Amino acid sequence: QVIDVRPLISKKYFTFDPGFTSTASCESKITFIDGEKGVLLHRGFPIKELANHSTYLEVCYILLYGEPPTPEQYATFKTTITRHTMIDDQITHLFRGFRRDSHPMAVLCGVTGALAAFYHNGLDVHDQNHRELSAFRLLSKMPTMAAMCYKYSIGQPFVFPRNNLSYAANFLNMMFSTPCEEYQVTPVLERAMDRILILHADHEQNASTSTVRTAGSSGSNPFACIAAGIASLWGPSHGGANEACLKMLEEIGKAENIPKFIARAKDKNDDFRLMGFGHRVYKNYDPRAKVMKEACDEVLNELNIQDPLFEVARELEHIALNDHYFIEKKLYPNVDFYSGLILKAIGIPTSMFTVIFTVARTIGWISHWKEMHDEGLKIARPRQLYRGYTQRAFKSQNFH
Ligand code: ACO
């Protein structure tokens, strides 16, 4: 049931809802979630069908424009995205200003924000064509910058984008090719990467998307708004969860240690939480987690990888799903529970996990930013409950 509080606000009432657990800040036609039933639809299409029968770029088109592309529209979109993948050479100097051991998310956040300084002349966010061009640029350049973050962190030269590769294959090539050896992107790895991107593409008003909308609501430069989204995504309660989840699985190490960690997760005096479990909206199995688990199974089988952590994850899931605490609190595996294991199988280092999420989620952020502008802006300005002093007299101590 939706209560429209706008008439009440005009009578000087406002709602107090920390963390916006039940407050809608906007109307949107992009993504639908039914958290009780575990349903996720993008523009009406179930996530499982998209993950199994489409490509990431097709999903991007659907999120951005609302309808699946015709073959001609898809070809034009693909060509456009491919043509914008290069980064201004000045940006390479910017990378060199960062410490090599910086977290790649810190670098990506900085470099994306810096793009605002490259794309500002003549950029009018009120012009639909300019908004579309910004969307293309962000979608195209994010994988290039993400791979550059990795190459910089390991001290290798940057690899230029390749126009003859798919979005996912081009990213893997920029990550793993070197001047001495070209990386061979196999169809299994390419498809696995593409699926990971699809499964993280959008998730309505999560913390980072809301941040992008809030930043954009003042009419700010889109590259700066996306940098704000990256900052929000970085946290372990949001995009940082798959990195934290893999670390947790490594710490658990073997199935016999699981009960100890379950007990810690239930202990109110211990801050520890089972990473990859629980969700603000899903009070049922996260539909993305189901597809992710299948994909993980497939990738490990096809690559013939025996990862003991996958067994630990499966057993942990089984124990938690049958545990009274997790049942009562409706804590189910979320998308991040298995994604770290697939990324590990692809060869992506743990420090890059949230960066991959950023690459995938860029389309969600842009689509919401674009929708907000297309539908008409209202500046985000939440209220607060003031709990500080009432008015009091200031006594000057004559410091100057
Ligand atoms: N392990 C143990 N207990 C948990 C967990 C967990 N992973 N998640 C929630 N709980 C418990 C809380 O302790 C709380 O218990 P209480 O009622 O006794 O105080 C109750 O469940 C509700 O938890 P909240 O934090 O209030 O739920 P909220 O909706 O605010 O948080 C969140 C959701 C942040 C995702 C939380 O479940 C969590 O921290 N999970 C682990 C991190 C994670 O996997 N994040 C990824 C989310 S998906 C994504 O961003 C792509």
UniProtKB/TrEMBL annotation:
It comes from the Bacteria. GO terms for biological process: tricarboxylic acid cycle. It catalyses: oxaloacetate + acetyl-CoA + H2O = citrate + CoA + H(+). Keywords: Transferase, Tricarboxylic acid cycle. One of its GO terms (molecular function) is citrate synthase activity. Pathway: Carbohydrate metabolism; tricarboxylic acid cycle; isocitrate from oxaloacetate: step 1/2. The active site is at H279, D336. One of its GO terms (cellular component) is cytoplasm. Belongs to the citrate synthase family. This is Citrate synthase. It comes from Hamiltonella defensa subsp. Acyrthosiphon pisum (strain 5AT).
